[in-house]
Amino acid sequence: MNVLEEYKRKLRTPEQAVQVIKSGDWIDYTTSLGQPILLDRALAARRDELTDVKIRGNLVFGPLEVAECDPSQEHFIYHSWHCSSYERSLCDRGLCYYIPMVFHLNSDYYKHFLTVNVAMACVTPMDRHGYFNLSTSTGVSGQILRKADIVILEVNENLPKLYGGYDECIHISDVDYVVEGHHDPFPDAPVPKITDIDRKIAENLLPYLVDGMTLQLGIGSLPHALGNLIAESDLKDLGMHTELCSDAYLQLHKAGKLTNRYKTINRGKSVLGVAVGSNELYDWIDENPSVAVYPLSYVNNPEVIGRIDNMVSINSCLEVDLYGQVSSESAGTRQISGTGGQLDFLTGASTSRGGKAFICMSSTFTDRNGMQQSRVVPRFGGDIITSPRSQVYYLATEYGVVNLIGKSTWERAEAIISLAHPTFRDQLIRAAQAQHIWRRSNKR
Q: How far apart are CA 262 and CA 235, in angstroms?
C-alpha cells in the first residue's frame, strides 16, 4: 500500500475519530499551535457520554472546548505543564491543574511514568514520503506520540514546516487516524508592552553581553526590550539556542545579528524547541535551512547547553527573597506560568565556557489595590520556589546586576537589597537583621 492510499484509509471526520475515547482515558493535546482545535470541539460534543476524561497540554492559547463546556469537571479535567495566559485564567476558575516539571525531563516522564491512551496533535499536511511535520510543537510532541495507544493527527494547513535535528516528523504508518478541516489563520501573539523599566534592565545587561554569544531568551516584555537594544547595538555574530522562539529573535535576524557563526555545536543553526509569536515569525522559520527544531530533551539538556561557549540565558521571575530563592511561576498559591526551562538553562549556562545565567525582574509591582509592593521579599511563605538559592547566579533589576555565586547569606542579603527599590531597602535590612543574615558592620 502506498502512503496516499494509507492516508485515505485512515482519514476520518473529527467526530468519527474521537469515538475511540473512553471514560477514564488520559488524552494529550501537545502544546501551543499543536492544539487540536477540531478534535477538541468534537470531543467536547461527547461530554454527556463520558466521565473522568483527563487531558494534558501546555501553552495552549484557547479556547479549550473540553474545559469551557464542563465547569463541574465530571466529564473532562484539564491539566497544563506550563500555563499560557488563557490556561492561567482557567486555573483561576478552577478549571485547570498545573503539573510540576522541568522541561528537559518531560519526555522521560512520558517514557517511564505516564499513560497516554490517545494523543491528538496538529501537524502540517503529509508530504510525498508519508511524513507529517510536528512544526512548532516538536519540542514536546515526539515522545507523547510514541507513548500513545492511539495517535490522531489533525492537519492544519497554516502550520509552518520546520527542519529539525530529530523527532520533528511522524510517518503515516505510525498514525491511527487523520482528520482534516478548515482552520483560521493563526492570530499574532500579543506583543508585550515594553516599559521604561524593561529598557533599563536591558541596558544593565548589555555590558555583560559579547560578540559571538549564544542567547536563550524567555518570553515577555524584557526579551523584546533586549532584542531591540541588541539590534541597535554593535554586538554581532550572535547565536540562538532556546526553548521558546519569540519575535525577539526575529528582531535579531532582521538586524543581521543572528548568524550562529561561532556556535560550538549546531554551528550555523538557530535551535529551538517551541515557537510562539507573530505570523512574520512563523514565515521566517518556515522551511528555513538556518533554523533547526529539536525535542526539549535536547534543547534544554544542561549538558548540551553547557557545551555551547558563551551561552547566555536570560529569564524573568516574580519575586526573590533575601536568601536568593526565586519564585517565577506563582503569586502566593495562584499559578501564573510554570517552571519551564529556567532551571535547565540556569544549570547549563553556568557550566558553559564564558556562560552567564541571568534572572531579571522589576524591583516593584502594583497590587490590585493600587499599592506599590517590593519584588524583593524577606523570605517566602507560601510562594512556589522555582529556582533554589544554590542555582541562582546573576540577578538583575532596574537598579543593577549582582552575581550571587559563592556569596554567603549576609553577602547575598546585601547584594539583593541593592537591587530593591530604595523605598523598601531599610525595612529589608531590618528583616535581614531579624533573620540573622545581616552583618552588624554592613553599611546601610
A: 13
Q: Please, where in the chain does CATH 3.40.1080.10 lie? A: 3-179
Beta strands in 299-399 (DSSP E): 311-316, 319-321, 326-327, 330-331, 334-335, 356-360, 364-366, 372-374, 376-377, 394-397
- Average pLDDT in the chain: 95
Which residue ranges make up the annotated binding site for CoA?
Answer: 218-222, 318, 341
Nearest-CA neighbor of 53 among 34, 69, 38, 37? 69
User: Which of the following is catalytic: 243, 329, 398, 414?
Assistant: 243
Q: pLDDT, tens digit, for every residue of 255-312? A: 999 999 999 999 999 999 999 999 999 999 999 999 999 999 999 999 999 999 999 9
Q: Distance between alpha carbon 198 and the CA centroid of its chain, in Å?
A: 20
- Tell me, rounded to whole angstroms, the distance of Cα 406 from its chain centroid: 29
The residue with cell 535579531 is 252
Note the helical H segments in 46-191: 65-68, 85-92, 106-112, 138-147
Three-state DSSP at 70 gives coil
Per-residue pLDDT, averaged over 160-174, amounts to: 97
pLDDT category, 338, cuts 50, 70, 90? confident
Superfamily classification of domain 196-434: Acetyl-CoA hydrolase/transferase C-terminal domain (3.40.1080.20)
Give the per-residue pLDDT at 219. Answer: 78
Question: Which residues of the chain are in CATH 3.40.1080.20 domains?
Answer: 196-434
Cell numbers for 226, please give them: 533586549
User: Is 243 one of the catalytic residues?
Assistant: yes
Among 29, 39, 3, 28, which residue's Cα sits nearest to residue 180?
A: 39
What's 164's DSSP letter?
B
pTM for this one?
0.95
CATH-assigned architecture of domain 3-179: 3-Layer(aba) Sandwich (3.40)
